[in-house]
Amino acid sequence: MKLYWSPVELASRLARRGVKYNFASGAPDPDLLPFDELRKSFERVYEEYGKAIIAYPGAGGLRELRVELSRYVNRVLGINANWRDVIVTAGAQHAIKLLSQLLMRRRTVVYVEDPTFVETVAPMKFQGAKLIGVPIDNEGMNIHELERLVKIHGPGIVYTVPNCHNPTGVSLSRDRRKHLIEIAREHELTIIEDDPYTSLHSNAEPTLKSMSDDVVYVGTLSKVLGPGLRIGFVITNGALRNNLEKLEQHDFAASTLNQYLVYDLLRRGVADDVVRRARELYPRKLRELIEALDEYLPNALIYRPICGFYAFINTGVNAWELLRRSIRQGVVFVPGGKFFISGAKENTARLSIGSIRIDLIREGVKTLSSVIMAT
Ligand code: PMP
């Protein structure tokens, strides 16, 4: 098994050298993160819980946090879950790694959007899963095509980012959601819904989990409270929930201290406050990006993004080559080739509005377009 550096990591390393226009990072806007509140939370849990904050966490996570998370997903995402069905992980990425270890073996069939998020499919490939790419358009995964592929390759798992997809920015339409849930029942497909972005947008479609309890839901606090806290969660039930709790003991990866901090930030309403501000800022940033692309790189957008952080574009030239040139003008992005399951298209790129300042987006796109024109 050969392991690769993720293209997101590579581009982020370049960005650390101090670029002006960082379209590479999927990290949230630093201005939204509740940095001062974090300090208050530390003081509160230090006083209230003492040395328990540095004890081992219990299997499945801190009970107080699980309870707060079940309330949070209800308030913000319309998901009804018993706190026992919420299993805390060290971020969504860790959650997907654990789920891959539990559900996937050599040749397990996993249906994914094509393109898909390169980092979350890495642990699936590591398990030896057989990834089947399903085409995606402006209404999300093509479910008719999924159904056709299931008839060929058989039952398995559907890994999907139905809202604010990474890297394309599209969302699964309401009709396709119903269809997906129907065919999952009919063909014994387990749906894993990876959902980091729904909470950041008030216009997002309802989660699959809120439509069907059979869905295995993966959530994260990375985009709301800070990715370095490494707190995410899975909502599932029955045998899978029990096994996840047991597997989670193999590494106890979610730090007790961070679980207490996130618990306190949730109970004081700090996360809700960030969500409120995020729902105002990120849609504006995404609109700014789309308008700038329409003006300076018309026809570049392959999909019309409607929420989340990302736009996926046709660069017209090899994107790694373009990146080498654009860095000199202060622009970084993530080349898109590695996001594809079949037939890597190397003339594509993912642009993110996550952490770039809103007032730099237009100028950044203009600079990128001038580099493309000169290539
Ligand atoms: N899944 C998707 C679709 C993502 O976009 C991201 C973050 N870029 C993750 C998972 C990972 O999130 P976390 O920081 O919680 O591991």
From TrEMBL:
Keyword Cell inner membrane included in the entry's annotation: no
Cofactor: pyridoxal 5'-phosphate
GO molecular function: pyridoxal phosphate binding; transaminase activity
CDD domains given in the database record: AAT_like (cd00609)
Keywords: Aminotransferase, Pyridoxal phosphate, Transferase
Residue intervals of the Aminotransferase class I/classII large domain: 21-353
Coiled coil (UniProt feature): none
Organism domain of life: Archaea
Listed InterPro entries: Aminotransferase_I/II_large, Class-I_PLP-dep_aminotransf, PyrdxlP-dep_Trfase, PyrdxlP-dep_Trfase_major, PyrdxlP-dep_Trfase_small
GO biological process: alpha-amino acid metabolic process
Protein name: Putative transcriptional regulator, GntR family
Species assigned in the record: Vulcanisaeta distributa (strain DSM 14429 / JCM 11212 / NBRC 100878 / IC-017)
